[in-house]
Structure formats: C-alpha cells, structure tokens
Amino acid sequence: MPKKAALTIRNEKGDITVADMARPVSLTNGTGNIEVRGTTGDVDIDTKKSDIKVSDTNGNIKISGHGGDINVSGATGGLTIDGEFYGAIRADKVAKGVRFISRRTDLTLSQLSGHMEAGPGSLETQAARSKSTIAEETWMCGFRFYRKRTSRSAMRRRGLL
Questions:
Q1: Which residues span the domain enclosing 15?
Q2: C-alpha span between 122 and 143 (Å, rounded)
Q3: What is the DSSP code (8-state) at residue 149?
Q4: Residue 26 scores a pLDDT above 60
C-alpha cells in the first residue's frame, strides 16, 4: 500500500494493524483487535467489539461504537471516544484534548500532556487541563462528577472539590 494513499478498511472478523500512513485512515471492524501507529492523517475507527491501540499519530483520532480496552498515546490532534467501551480507557499525551461521550459519560479534557485512565469504578488524570467551569452532575463508572455551570471556586466553597 502506498504510504500517501488514503486508507479505508472494512472487516467483520480478525485483527487490523496499520502503520506508517501519511493520509487519513478509516477502519470499520466487527470483532478483532485494532492497532494503528505512525500515521500523519486523521484516524477514524468504528467497532462493534474490539480492543484498540493507537500510537504516534499526527492527526485527530475518533473512536466510535462498542468495545473493550482503548490505549492512545502520542497524538498531536484530539481524541474523541463516542460509544460504549467497557474496558480500561487509557490516554497519554494527547495535545488537543480528550472527549469521551457515552450514555453515562460526558467528559472533556482540553489538553492532556500526561496520563488519563478510566475504568469500571475509577477515573485518574495526571497533567490534564480541563475547562475552568464544571456543570451539572454526571455519573461515570459509579462516581459522581460535576461539569460546566458551577465555577471551581464555588465547588470548593461547597466542599465538592
């Protein structure tokens, strides 16, 4: 496959590995693991049941559907996760931030220069920047979080931070 060709793969069963592509990559997979590394275009992944690993990419990453573990590291763009993923979600060094949307979660980190990990019953972040306000409560993995509408100083005064 030429490095500068746009790549689209549709697969029902089996693993997919993509490396060293200089154009956008679009992957649709039923079951099987997905690994993408060393790309310079955007990465779009839609899955029904996959573990996903994306590393060293110079574009935006969008992961949608359903699946297990997600590991993303070294992205110059942003990461959007849209769907129901029940394994561990790990992200390291995502320059333009992380957005995770599901039926139970709406999480936005505007920049991630460190590490984020979310899993059943936990959320950890290190060196993450979020918006300066936090809004109505939301539940994620059994924990209550607040986002947007209420300022951080007001949350501190109420003993919620």
A1: 7-130
A2: 7
A3: B
A4: yes
